[in-house]
């Protein structure tokens, strides 16, 4: 179980400041969704947490500074699921998921590793694809395999960059239900960048709404997903209703002059 504390985090690409003085706290067994328009800094923040990028400020896992951890320790603690376009080398689905065990094995693959991979494939309903070439899968199938690879690693923190973007409705729900159940059952934390506000509302404990690299607001989906916030951050007029006791957003029209993305 891990608590994540992000303190005064700032990151620039060259002279272009992307994230500015961010502060976020995430307790264990919680799903945190990063929302905001294209270019608002969601992916950059996920890469900073996983130390793919080196920000200023600090990121603490249970009080321990991520910057000071060894790469192996980071790999054991955090499972990173990139957007599915970043594909690993051509190999079978089984071997791709087995690669997730790498931070936990020496040079020899054990029975435990094999059975962990098999269990994870089953958990995500991927067992029928086990011997298929990863490169030949559909975008949605690839995305699920990348999630399985991160889960096989048994991380305390799951970092996901738009995990549902290539999936149809059924697979979107399947993936979000799986992540949400794992977080609750295993007491891990998940941080995900996500575009779909309705999925974020339904499956997140907390949201952080980014606008031009700063936290516009943070809180529960109920607190954050108001018509005003959506208009301010996305430049979109939306109707916020309720469904399954969660906010349900119906986008109506883009507002003139509402473009807020940094790209
Ligand atoms: P989001 O995930 O919210 O769409 P990103 O974190 O991908 O936003 O991008 C935030 C900003 O950083 C954008 O303006 C983007 O153009 C810029 N950016 C992303 N990657 C790079 C890079 N490798 N070099 C320079 N700028 C980048």
Write structural notes for this entry.
- By secondary structure, this protein is an alpha/beta fold.
- It has two domains: 4-225, P-loop containing nucleotide triphosphate hydrolases (Rossmann fold); 234-263, no CATH class.
- 33% of the residues lie in helices and 29% in strands.
- The protein contains nine helices and twelve strands.
- Strands 6-7-8-3-9-10 form a six-stranded mixed β-sheet, sandwiched between helices.
- The mean pLDDT is 89.
- Adenosine-5'-diphosphate is lined by residues 13, 18, 36, 38-44, 193, 262-263.
Structure summary:
The chain is α/β, with parallel strands linked by helices. It is built from nine helices and twelve strands.
The CATH topology of the largest domain is given as: Rossmann fold
Mean pLDDT reading: 89
**Biggest sheet features:** 6 strands, mixed
Strand order of the largest sheet: 6-7-8-3-9-10
Poorly predicted tracts of residues: none
CATH class of the largest domain: Alpha Beta
**Counting H and I runs of at least 4 residues, what is the number of helices?**
9
Secondary structure category: alpha/beta
CATH H-level superfamily of the largest domain: P-loop containing nucleotide triphosphate hydrolases
Bound molecules: adenosine-5'-diphosphate
User: Helix fraction?
Assistant: 25-40%
Distance between the termini: 36 Å
Tell me the count of domains.
Answer: 2
What's the shape?
Answer: globular
Strand content: 25-35%
């Amino acid at each position: 179980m891990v608590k994540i504390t992000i303190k005064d985090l700032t990151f620039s690409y060259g002279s272009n400041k992307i994230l500015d003085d961010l502060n976020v706290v995430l307790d264990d067994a919680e799903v945190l969704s990063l929302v905001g328009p294209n270019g608002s800094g969601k992916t950059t923040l996920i890469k900073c947490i996983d130390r793919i990028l080196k920000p200023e400020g600090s990121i603490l896992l249970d009080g321990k500074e991520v910057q000071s951890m060894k790469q192996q320790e980071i790999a054991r603690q955090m499972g990173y699921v990139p957007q599915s376009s970043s594909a690993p080398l051509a190999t079978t689905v089984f071997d791709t998921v087995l690669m997730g065990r790498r931070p936990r094995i020496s040079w020899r693959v054990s029975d435990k590793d094999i059975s962990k991979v098999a269990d994870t494939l089953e958990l995500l309903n991927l067992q029928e694809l086990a011997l298929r070439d990863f490169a030949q899968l559909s975008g949605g199938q690839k995305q699920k395999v990348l999630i399985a690879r991160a889960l096989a690693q048994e991380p305390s923190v799951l970092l996901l960059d738009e995990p549902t973007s290539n999936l149809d409705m059924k697979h979107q729900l399947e993936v979000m239900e799986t992540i949400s159940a794992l977080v609750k059952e295993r007491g891990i934390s998940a941080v995900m960048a996500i575009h779909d506000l309705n999925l974020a509302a339904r499956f997140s404990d907390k949201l952080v709404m980014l606008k031009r690299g700063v936290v516009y607001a943070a809180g529960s989906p109920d607190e954050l997903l108001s018509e005003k916030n959506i208009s301010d951050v996305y430049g979109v007029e939306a109707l916020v209703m309720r469904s399954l006791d969660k906010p349900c957003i119906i986008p109506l029209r883009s507002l003139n002059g509402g473009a807020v993305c940094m790209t």
